[in-house]
Amino acid sequence: MVDEVIKLVNVSKVYISSGGVKTWALRDINLVVYRGDFISIMGPSGHGKTTLLYVMGTLERPTTGKVFINGVDTTTLSDEELSKLRNKEIGFIFQQYNLINRMTIEENIELPLIKLGIPREKRRKMIEEAMLKSGCEFSWLNKRPTQLSGGQQQRVAIARALVTNPRILLCDEPTGALDSKSAEVVLNTLKKLNELGHTVIIVTHDPNVASIAKKMIFIRDGTIIGEKVLQ
Ligand SMILES: Nc1ncnc2c1ncn2[C@@H]1O[C@H](COP(=O)(O)OP(=O)(O)OP(=O)(O)O)[C@@H](O)[C@H]1O
Ligand SMILES: [Mg+2]
């Protein structure tokens, strides 16, 4: 039970447009993620990958069904309780890095620590540890995101996701904006983090990216249509 870090039970997600049109982004998803898993979620554009990742990460609530994080039924939590749990347990990595350009690299990585109320004297060490784990160089600390390459910015984004030491890393097309060389560095970083014990989930439409994981899950029209164990 404790080893089930994320569990989705009969999860569906419906978006309703202002005109009343319903889109079934997810239909009746059942999925268990165990501690230490390295999973890729594969599927074509518009078939529900991001929605699934957001529901797994509790950024979105399901329309029906239940989402458990470490055995806790998140559907019964208030928004405040939910964001506390999320901030502690889950780090997000996005295709476009989502760094704040008017802040330095250090300030970007520091932000989640400030949100969690970690005292200043502890923060620098945590920032440095996250940078080492994600392959960032300390010479970047005082730079701005726009002074770094895409691959470097993504490694900073990984450091920011890691700095609070979340056990789960959820990545939405983490290499989608990168050339193949930078993509490889980022994927190897994620692989290394999995070896260090983080549970890693990558959403992608790219089979080459998906094949780095230990298990692939295929999604079509909001439904899981199959899976493949790779290692
Ligand atoms: N906030 C939203 N409001 C309304 N419809 C949405 C919303 N987010 C997603 N959708 C719809 O839900 C479906 C699944 O979208 P989703 O973003 O999960 O797909 P995806 O597999 O991540 O696609 P891509 O590979 O292009 O990123 C699509 O039909 C999309 O238009
Ligand atoms: Mg998407």
Give the CATH architecture: 3-Layer(aba) Sandwich
CATH superfamily: P-loop containing nucleotide triphosphate hydrolases
Bound molecules: adenosine-5'-triphosphate, magnesium ion
Q: Which structural class fits the helix and strand makeup?
A: alpha/beta
Q: How many angstroms does the end-to-end distance come to?
A: 23 Å
Shape: globular
| Number of self-contained structural domains | 1
Tally of helical segments: 7
Strand content: 25-35%
Low-confidence stretches: none
Assigned CATH class:
Alpha Beta
Describe this protein's structure.
There is one protein chain. This protein is an alpha/beta fold and 231 residues long. It has a single domain (4-229), classed as P-loop containing nucleotide triphosphate hydrolases (Rossmann fold). 33% of the residues lie in helices and 29% in strands. It contains seven helices and ten strands. The protein has helices at residues 49-56, 79-89, 105-115, 120-133, 150-162, 180-195, 207-210, and strands at residues 4-16, 22-34, 38-42, 64-69, 72-73, 90-93, 168-172, 199-204, 215-220, 223-229. The chain has a six-stranded mixed β-sheet, with helices on both faces. A four-stranded antiparallel β-sheet has the order 2-1-4-5, with helices on one face. A hairpin with a 5-residue loop joins β1 (4-16) and β2 (22-34). α3 crosses α4 (120-133), α4 (120-133) packs across α5 (150-162) and α5 packs parallel to α6. It is globular and about 50 Å long. The model has no long low-confidence stretch (mean pLDDT 95). Bound molecules: adenosine-5'-triphosphate and magnesium ion. Adenosine-5'-triphosphate (ATP) binds at residues 15, 23, 25, 43, 45-51, 205. Magnesium ion binds at residues 49-50, 172.
